[in-house]
Amino acid sequence: MAPLNFHNKVAVVTGAGGGLGRGYALLLGSRGAKVVVNDLGGDTKGEGKSSRAADTVVEEIRSTGGTAVANYDSVEDGEKIIQTALDNFGHIDILVNNAGILRDRSLPRTSNTDWDLVHRVHLRGSFLMTRAAFPMMKKQGYGRIIMTTSTAGIFGNFGQANYSAAKLGLLGLSNTVAIEGRKYNINCNTVAPFGGTRMTQGIMPPDMLEELKPEFVAPVVSWLCHEDCHDTGGLYVTGGGWVSKFRWENTTGVMCRESRVSAMTPETVRDNWDKICDFTNSEHLESNEETTGSILEVLNNLKDSPGTELQHTHSAASTSPSTTGPLSALGVSIGPTDFTYTRKDVVLYALGVGVSTQDEDGLRFLYENSEDFCPLPTFTVIASQAAMMGGELWSKMSNWSPDLTKLLHGEMYIENLAPIPPAATLATTTTVSDVLDKGSGSVLILDTVTRGEDGTDVSRGQWSLFLVGEGNFGGPRSSKVAMPLADPPNRPPDATKELTTGIDQAALYRLSGDYNPLHIDPSFAAMGGFSQPILHGLCFYGVTARAVLATYCDGQPSKFKAMKARFAKPVLPGQTLVIAMWKEGSRIHFTTTVKETGKACLTGGYVDITEDAGAKDMAAGGKGVAVAGSEVFREMAGRLAGDSSVAAKVNAIIQWNVMKGDNTADQWTVDLKGGAAADPVYMGPPQGGRRPDLTLTLAEENLVALVAGSLKPQAAFLSGQLKLAGNMAVAQRLQLLMPPHPRM
Ligand SMILES: CCCCCCC[C@@H](O)CC(=O)SCCNC(=O)CCNC(=O)[C@H](O)C(C)(C)COP(=O)(O)OP(=O)(O)OC[C@H]1O[C@@H](n2cnc3c(N)ncnc32)[C@H](O)[C@@H]1OP(=O)(O)O
């Protein structure tokens, strides 16, 4: 294989005036790197300053034909050192954080200054250097960073409280830089070198020092800095030519609570101590997610009430070894999970998807006292999402810990099965019904059923979650259970609507429960590969739903039955959505495009509406539903009454406008309109299409009983036979929420 070279690469090595730093600088320089040799020229305690050390190394590199410049700043002026690289060579590719000092004292004798100086040079200095270099590396999509720790940091060392604490801090810093840099091809690794340097002189015999020359460490650092080395987030202990990789190891652990209701006592810990510390079948957890997942999994396995045996940990004990990776998600089920919401949550969700008080129907969704206040038809997505957000889902996938920074919402189907109450506790059951292998990622298909307090199904949904980078595991590519998408007709759209999202739309939407940092935290978004936080998929889904609701449902959620779409491209907060709609019977096809980019962000989308007549009226610009409803009512009233007196009696109390349904329906939705005080009930034709004040939902037999007077409204309401929505003040005025009206 060809020798490794660093042509066209610019390296900054701190503390390069001697010892290991000099070794790194010389080797990199001899292999073609342009080197900034940084050294303050102080002593090992951080005192004094001289340009001699750096100049000498620069001369050494130049004398063998290499390119180097000196820099004499402290690492606490990290930006100046990086600027030296930019001024002389135009960019920076490699940063070796090597500078360090010692102020060894036993703990009681360590002064604040001893502590602070060591931290300032090692930990703060490396942070400042790395922070200064990172933006340039990110911009060019390439970087190699080295942090220097020590076995004193890993294991501790007598007389080095300050040094060992700073050194282990460097490992934490390195691991985080590795995570944040991964997306930009910026690798960050840590070395714990064992070298005979100025700092170790006097504590080792000379012949031993000779064996531990920097020349026996520098090749490791050079390899980690080379573009062919793709490892990141590693820790390497090296010295005298020996190189090894370190990692964490933990025992399988013991759950010290017998059940969810059991207390944890010091005695339980004592009694299990041997097992807690037993490294048989030990594990090597590699990330926060794995660690959190393990703990959640153990919690998940905890019994509800005391049993016989303590629950041991996850892994081998609780999972089938044959199913690993994404396929282990198949069939995982959670819930029912309760989600309690109030009218405030309904308003917050509406604001989150951009409803404004300036919209024609804005107050219906924004003002809890408005006469027809109700949730948007897509509101139940937040109930089913709340069920998924708790972490239980992932903890049940015992053999798979996907990188959740790469999770994108792929597709969404929602279907309303009953009116969504303005405030309630809903319970959602979630099941992973399919797992697909799309090559570039895996897709989890999750089915949800959301039930109301009385056990009736309020909505069902289907979520497709796209996990970028989790593909190629040998799973199926297509699904039999996925709700299909639908292409729009091949003609210009029947209607188009433009809705602009706010620059803080995601900040607002997240308050409805999706706190995924992808939508607000720039560094988290960067980990997912985005230049800035992106909008929640369900936010622009909700905005699109509003366009269909206003255009084809007369703004009435009761007419909005189901919606499906694919999230095809991300949307940035502040962008404008262009929603193109096509009406085909009771199906409204749509495509949503980002105006600024011309790219479709929702594709294959459709909304199924319940009532075609209303849509036709809307399209015609009229509001004839109430008129049609009145006819239905007249027919119904006559049928119910058998004689006109009962119909007259009903009419004397209220005008019933049947807004929806037909004579064969067994569930009736009846809309009532309150009138002026002197004329408590409005009678007559619809007043300019004014919305009903109150909507009653009840079974036909109950309507019969109500009209006949055998079922009292108050009792019917309390028993759930009669459901009221809208302005409760009108309900009271109409005496539906009071002791039975004398005339009923
Ligand atoms: C438990 C917690 C629950 C919480 C869930 C929600 C949490 C939220 O906070 C998360 C969000 O809101 S993320 C924001 C909304 N989503 C997005 O912006 C994603 C936009 N889509 C993309 O970027 C790409 O489509 C992308 C990246 C998804 C796919 O692009 P590519 O890899 O380029 O795919 P491509 O080459 O076009 O196609 C490969 C195969 O994948 C299928 N596919 C494409 N897009 C898909 C999508 N969005 N959903 C499902 N499948 C999709 C393609 O059809 C193709 O498969 P096949 O060859 O079999 O047809």
From TrEMBL:
<dbReference type="GO" id="GO:0018812">
    <property type="term" value="F:3-hydroxyacyl-CoA dehydratase activity"/>
</dbReference>
<comment type="pathway">
    <text>Lipid metabolism; fatty acid beta-oxidation.</text>
</comment>
<comment type="similarity">
    <text>Belongs to the short-chain dehydrogenases/reductases (SDR) family.</text>
</comment>
<dbReference type="Pfam" id="PF02036">
    <property type="entry name" value="SCP2"/>
</dbReference>
<dbReference type="InterPro" id="IPR020904">
    <property type="entry name" value="Sc_DH/Rdtase_CS"/>
</dbReference>
<feature type="domain" description="Ketoreductase">
    <location>
        <begin position="9"/>
        <end position="183"/>
    </location>
</feature>
<dbReference type="InterPro" id="IPR051687">
    <property type="entry name" value="Peroxisomal_Beta-Oxidation"/>
</dbReference>
<dbReference type="InterPro" id="IPR003033">
    <property type="entry name" value="SCP2_sterol-bd_dom"/>
</dbReference>
<keyword id="KW-0576">Peroxisome</keyword>
<dbReference type="GO" id="GO:0016853">
    <property type="term" value="F:isomerase activity"/>
</dbReference>
<dbReference type="GO" id="GO:0005777">
    <property type="term" value="C:peroxisome"/>
</dbReference>
<dbReference type="GO" id="GO:0006631">
    <property type="term" value="P:fatty acid metabolic process"/>
</dbReference>
<dbReference type="InterPro" id="IPR057326">
    <property type="entry name" value="KR_dom"/>
</dbReference>
<dbReference type="InterPro" id="IPR002539">
    <property type="entry name" value="MaoC-like_dom"/>
</dbReference>
<feature type="region of interest" description="Disordered">
    <location>
        <begin position="307"/>
        <end position="326"/>
    </location>
</feature>
<keyword id="KW-0560">Oxidoreductase</keyword>
<keyword id="KW-0443">Lipid metabolism</keyword>
<feature type="compositionally biased region" description="Low complexity">
    <location>
        <begin position="313"/>
        <end position="326"/>
    </location>
</feature>
<dbReference type="InterPro" id="IPR036291">
    <property type="entry name" value="NAD(P)-bd_dom_sf"/>
</dbReference>
<dbReference type="Pfam" id="PF01575">
    <property type="entry name" value="MaoC_dehydratas"/>
</dbReference>
<protein>
    <recommendedName>
        <fullName>Peroxisomal multifunctional enzyme type 2</fullName>
    </recommendedName>
</protein>
<keyword id="KW-0413">Isomerase</keyword>
<dbReference type="InterPro" id="IPR029069">
    <property type="entry name" value="HotDog_dom_sf"/>
</dbReference>
<dbReference type="Pfam" id="PF00106">
    <property type="entry name" value="adh_short"/>
</dbReference>
<dbReference type="InterPro" id="IPR054357">
    <property type="entry name" value="MFE-2_N"/>
</dbReference>
<keyword id="KW-0456">Lyase</keyword>
<dbReference type="Pfam" id="PF22622">
    <property type="entry name" value="MFE-2_hydrat-2_N"/>
</dbReference>
<dbReference type="GO" id="GO:0016491">
    <property type="term" value="F:oxidoreductase activity"/>
</dbReference>
<dbReference type="InterPro" id="IPR036527">
    <property type="entry name" value="SCP2_sterol-bd_dom_sf"/>
</dbReference>
<dbReference type="InterPro" id="IPR002347">
    <property type="entry name" value="SDR_fam"/>
</dbReference>
<keyword id="KW-0276">Fatty acid metabolism</keyword>
